Amino acid sequence: MPLSTITITGSWVNPDNTPASGIISLQPIQEATASGTIVAGSPVHIPLVNGSISTVLVNNTQATALQYQVTERITNTALVTYTITPTGSTLDLSTAPRSSAGATPVFILASQLGVAGGVVPLDGTAHIPAQYLPSGSGVLSVTAGDSTITIGGTGADPTVAVNSIPESKVTNLVGDLATLSANVATKATKPTFRRAYITSGDTTLPSTGASWAAVSGFELDIPAVAGDTVEVSMSAMRSQNTSAFLDVGVITGPTPAIQRYLATGSATPAIEGEPDWYTQNTFIGHAGPHSFIVTSNDLDSGNLRIALVCKSNGTGVVYSSTNYPFYWQLINWGSVG
Q1: Strand partners, 237
Q2: 11, 25, 185, 333: least buried by Cβ within 10 Å?
Q3: Where does 40-94 show beta strands of DSSP type E?
Q4: Measured between alpha carbons, how far is 272 from 250 in angstroms, rounded to an integer?
Q5: Do the beta carbons of residue 208 and residue 256 sit within 8 Å?
Q6: Exposed, middle or buried by CB within 10 Å (0-12, 13-18, 19+), for 283?
Q7: Which domain range does residue 211 map to?
Q8: CB 25 within 8 A of CB 44
Q9: Which residues contact 68 (CB under 8 A, 6 or more apart)?
């Protein structure tokens, strides 16, 4: 099937309106294919006859990518070069839409593809295969639609800088950061500390009968939520008295109600309180920190409150003076595994 053609015409005159002389060259900018036919990039040279030309060439009906580079070599005038698109059945070069001259086609030998000093081939997705990419700091920058990405440093210590590109322009970045931030907020918890010295004066324990009660002036609190792990430790001294028993309790309310005893870790006290605080007439105690997981019953307006608690007949002394200070601390480790 023959390809569709176009008649190309044109007229040129000298400054004195006499017919000009010269040669008009038309050359396909690149090879174009259609219907099993190749339109090769060979130039067609047409001499002016009485200042005019008329020639028939292939148009772009089937070979849709076809364009011609026109070179006007008119006697006694400067060389003129431009590009035309051969659309329709006739085209007058004097009035035809023109664009800048097209690039000269370059042909590459197959033997030079992918070799040193040759030309890098493209893969099936029109990208450079990984084995041909430069290593180390060979790529300096990539110009994108929204910004320039600058690559520096060394292969062992690379750096990447993006110039003022909105995070919304980076696919998946916003969602990924939101997920990562939530994970970090959940898992990377910083511990909270509360510590206090009590040196206001040694304290005689109140009479509580058979019950346990908080000792006035001995309270410490820390922000907490259910599920947090809280640790309690203390260093202090008491008098020898077999009728006074001590523990640390978790309390709530204005009239303190004891929700948890550290000696047992529950709402039920040990019969004689914390073993470390037992009067050392016969037994030797070994003190250490206590920890537990906070429940909703332990909380009082967003805080965990602890107090020194006792069961006493009104005798026994807890030393809390400048000479014999009472010290304790709370650590909230947050949610831990």
Answers
A1: 319
A2: 185
A3: 44-47, 52-58, 68-74, 80-84, 90-92
A4: 17
A5: no
A6: exposed
A7: 193-334
A8: yes
A9: 26, 27, 28, 29, 57, 83, 84, 85, 86
Say what percent of the chain tops pLDDT 90: 49
Residues 97 and 85: beta-carbon distance below 8 Å: yes
Q: How many domains does the chain have?
A: 2
CATH of the domain at 59: 2.60.40.2190
Q: Are 197 and 314 contained in the same domain? A: yes
Contact 31, 8 (CB under 8 A): no
> What are the residue ranges of helices labelled H in the chain?
173-187
180's enclosing H/E stretch is helix 173-187
Kind of pairing between the strands at 90-92 and 141-143: unpaired
Residue 127 lies in a domain: no
pLDDT tens-digit readout, 67-78? 888 999 999 999
Q: What is the DSSP letter of 191?
A: P
What residues are paired with 23 via a beta bridge? Answer: 47, 73
pLDDT tens for each residue of 320-337? 999 999 999 999 999 887
pLDDT at 208: 95
- Is 159 domain-assigned? no
Take residue 264 and report the two structure tokens written for it.
């047992």
Report strand pairing: 80-84 vs 68-74. Answer: antiparallel
- Give me the phi and psi of 92, to 5 degrees please: -95, 115
CATH number at residue 225: 2.60.120
Is pTM beyond 0.70 here?
no
Integer Cα distance of 62 and 80 in angstroms: 28
- Identify the domain boundary among 68, 92, 116: 92
Q: CB neighbours (10 Å) of residue 45?
A: 12
More reliable by pLDDT, 2 or 7: 7
| Residue of 232, 226, 237 lying closest to 248 (CA atoms) | 232
Residue pair 152/161 in contact by the 8 Å Cβ criterion? yes
Contact 317, 239 (CB under 8 A): yes
Last residue of a domain, one of 66, 92, 118: 92
Residue 61's pLDDT is 81
